[in-house]
Write a structure and sequence with these properties.
Number of helices: 8
Helix content: over 70%
Bound molecules: zinc ion
Radius of gyration: 21 Å
Number of strands: 0
């Protein structure tokens, strides 16, 4: 009985109605509710898709939500999170959220942070120290096994 055609993926299964997502993007929600939605965004690929769709639709309508989002640095992951993302040790859902934040929302601040972290990560790989330590640990392990 819905009058306008709605995205079949946009059902209430993830518990966040479009109106609330829009309010979230417009920063009309209380900090508590906005934080709750951010948690859901991290957990739900479908919800991220809906937000991406809302951003696209509204960008076309002249309201650049993506622009607001970028300007206010809404829901930016911490630098520690970005570091874990670079190292590939983040849980998949969280990593997906960071990809979404940087590539779909297009957060330039996090993108710059990411480039910076990737560079220092590469420098770290050239440092021979961790390899030497690993070698030492494995020889110690072998010595222990021989007993
Ligand atoms: Zn960001």
């Amino acid at each position: 009985m819905a009058e306008h055609p709605s995205d079949p993926a946009a059902g209430p299964s993830d518990g966040v109605p479009d109106a609330e997502l829009t309010a979230y993007l417009d920063e009309l929600l209380s900090a508590d509710r906005a934080a709750a939605i951010e948690v859901r965004l991290r957990e739900s690929p479908g919800l991220r898709q809906r937000v991406a769709g809302l951003i696209r639709r509204r960008d076309q309508g002249g309201h650049s939500v993506g622009e607001i989002w970028r300007r206010r640095r809404l829901s930016c992951p911490s630098r520690a999170d970005l570091g874990a993302y670079v190292l590939g040790v983040l849980e998949p859902a969280h990593a997906e959220y960071i990809r979404f934040h940087i590539h779909t929302v297009g957060c330039r601040i996090c993108e710059a942070n990411l480039v910076d972290l990737e560079q220092s990560c590469r420098k770290g790989e050239q440092d021979p120290e961790p390899r030497r330590r690993r070698f030492f640990e494995s020889s110690a392990g072998r010595l222990a096994d021989r007993r």
